Amino acid sequence: MSKQIELAGIAVVHACSIVPISRTVGANRIVATIAIPHPFGDPTKSPEEEKKLRKELVQKTLKALATPIDQQRVF
Amino acid sequence: MASQYRVVYSLNQFFAGLGGEDKAYQPPQLLEGPRGPGLLLEKLFPHMEVAATLVVGDNYLAEKTETALQEILALLSPSLTAEGADKIHFLLAGPAFNAGRYGIACGAICQAVQERFSIPALTAMYPRNPAVAVYRKDVLIARAGKDVMAMKEAVQRMALLAIKQFNGEELFPDRHNYIPHGRRKNYFAEKTGATRACDMLLLKLGGQAFNTEYLMPVFDRVQPAPPIHDMARARLALVTSGGIVPRGNPDRIEAASASRFGIYSLKGLLRFSSETHQTAHGGYDPTFANADPNRILPLDAVRELESEGAFASLHDFYYATVGNGTSVANAEEYGREIAKLLLADGVQAVILTST
Amino acid sequence: MTFERGNIAVADVRLGEQTELCNGVLLVDKKRLAEFLLSRDDNITSCLISLARPGDSTRILCVKDVVQPGCKVWGQGPGEGRRHVLENVAIVTCGKIVGYQEGIIDMSGTGALYSPFSRTFNVVLDIAVVSGLTPHQHEETIRNAGLVAADFLGETTRALRPDTIQTFSAQEDQPVSSHLPRVVYIYMLLSQGLLHDTYIFGRNAREGLPRTIEPLMLLDGAITSGNCVSACDKNTTWHHQNNPVLRELFRRHGRDLDFGGVVLTTEPVSLAVKESSAQKTIILVRELQAKGVILSKEGFGNPDADQMLLTRGLEQIGIKVVAITDEFAGADGFSQSLADSAMEADGVVSVGNANERVLLPPMEELLGPIRDLSRLAGAWPHSLHKDGSLEVELQAIIGATNELGMQRLSCREV
Questions:
Q1: Which residues contact C156 (CB under 8 A, 6 or more apart)?
Q2: Which of B190, B257, C112, C321 is deepest in the core (most CB within 10 A)?
């Protein structure tokens, strides 16, 4: 999906827990997330800590979207 | 009668019969004798004996790959270094069919085992399983069907390949049903290049099937889109393959091999909650996602950053499908359709989340 | 117009008091041959002549060119009349012209599986030249010496009755059933200057290409090689004299196909010229009313682009192409094989990965200008082992991945 969106000229960041798969399917901007059942969360943490963690990850994806790249990169 | 080949069989929690997603974090464990596909193997090949079954949870291996592999190698060491009557001839893993995480697990285990113990270690996958591209170079992967319906064929292919590899026979991808490693290797053909060229041209001219001897490489890559220069003025959209849908799954998106994607409103929505949304994804334990869907698609954090001015605005809809055994062709089609809608609304940037 | 090729095979080659072919044995008076070569060219200071037979423990190094001896028995112009050839004899010239250019021919062992000249009786000329020659003059001297020596030995066949006579007729004299597909051969010649040259009737092929040529003239030895590099996929003069694509097209003419002619083309050095050359070639092929094309090559790297330009252009106007190429897929076989690719190139014959390594066993005798193998170190990807065995990439072996399709070698994905 990311490739097709990118082909339309829209910058995409793929946030996922299994980076090798993302690499294979051809995503260009990749952000590694926490775990498969909760990529943007961590149930072992308090709700506040979890929220903070999530926000940091989203900030990381925004940063990736603003970064010039000429090939696949994992942020 | 002593069996001719002794095998260690590697499975995930599901195929070993330990449980489903609730056991996806199962640490490596070595069980005596065959389980699941191992039983089938012994039935199909009476001269094979599954001495032990290695079980590892999909998530455990996918998330803690290095640790998990070290634990697995330590666990297997006594049996794989045994000599004499206890000698293990090869390790079989899977078949993983089209399951991405299981595929990664099978590939990683085979690679580590053959490297450490110098015995054949092979698996079987659907050719478009994403793990194929990661491991086919080093690991012998039998061609398998998409799902468990193809179990018997896959186990058969894997076992026959294992015997051939064990005996050091020359392998041909087509004839022996394996996914080529992607390595070019010289051989002497029966006819000279000039004769082969004429033969091939005549077939081509006659409209008959012919086999090129070198397939042109396909560069399945897309030029990275230019970065967002001023994020504070950008319009952002959210897309997920993690299956987050409104409660009740109104579009009935399938838990696996999704045949559609859903378009859902975000208007006035500050965060997902267990009352409003859920996951439709069948490939991971849904407990955490259903308790707080923001863990899959982080709407709450995105809204906060929007109000702080980190980006200008959020597109009023999000797009969701289930990336669980979904074919690449389907996923590409969804991508194209979503891109059209996004362009029409002036979206410049997308966060795509996957599990 | 017809051309006859009279083939004469020898049972052995020996040194003798005079040069003659007697009871199937070719005797070579090496003193007389050396004197003859010296008398023809003032640039030659000495010429060492040795013999190498199939099965000998012999390695020939720095091979420059290989030429088949023969003589024109009768006939007016090129492509007409009869030529006698010594089928399994070759003149092998050696020269240290560019760096160490180790074109290798092994007469036995693993290396002998890869070169056609491991199966010929070779008369090896190791030629020394006066100091101060430019590389071009050096190359020309050695090239001409090989051709002269081939004529010298070829004379022995003039009065003999050939073992077999093959008769070839010009296509216009041999109309075929109109339902057979017309096939044209595009013969790419490496002719870039800088010692990458090919000669047509003795004139540099850089000028006047692309052009059509009467195929019978090619059988009569119209093309000679002046190429100094890439041993595995350079077309030696012997390859041009025995072009297997041409032979195959003649053999199948009137049976499976209608052989519609040959277009000679270049592999130029700039993209603009490559493009215009491809355009002109395609026009010539279309004028010959081809339905299909066989496209052979010489060298690797930038010639890949010529092959792809031609393939794409021809397929786009509905002419089916099969291209012959070798691969440079790395020693491990995992790299991309070609420097260029085209979606339209769906019919490719691979004549082998030139980067694949082979271990050549030590040989008792080394021929050629380098007598000490250790001096080869660093010149090409290879390594010399303590026992005298030599690990080389196939690209060091003369004719190993010949892109006219002379060999049986191929490459597959495993």
A1: C19, C20, C21, C26, C86
A2: C321
List B residues 155-174 in contact with A (Cβ-Cβ < 8 A).
none
C249 lies within 8 A of chain B by CB:
yes
ipTM for the predicted complex comes to 0.97
The ranges assigned to domains in chain B are: 5-179, 231-353
The residue of chain A nearest to residue B326, with distances taken between CA atoms, is A1
Q: How much of chain C exceeds pLDDT 90, in percent? A: 72
Q: Is there a contact between A5 and B335 if contact means CB atoms under 8 Å apart?
A: yes
- Does residue C66 lie in a domain region? yes
- What confidence tens digit (pLDDT) does each residue in C99-157 have? 666 689 999 999 999 999 999 999 999 999 999 988 889 999 999 999 999 999 999 99
Contact: B227, A68; criterion CB under 8 Å: yes
Partners of C104 in the beta sheet? C397
Our count of domains for chain C comes to: 1
**Which residue range forms the structural domain that includes residue C211?**
2-396
Residue C308 placed within a domain: yes
Predicted pLDDT at B123: 98
- CB pairs below 8 Å between A and B: how many? 201
Taking contacts as CB-CB distances below 8 angstroms, the residues of chain B near C297 are none
Which long-range CB contacts under 8 A does C33-36 form with residues at least 24 apart? C33/C149, C33/C152, C33/C153, C36/C148, C36/C152
C46 membership: H or E segment, kind and range: strand C44-52
The CATH number given to B5-179 is 3.40.50
Residues A65, C308: Cα–Cα separation, whole Å: 37
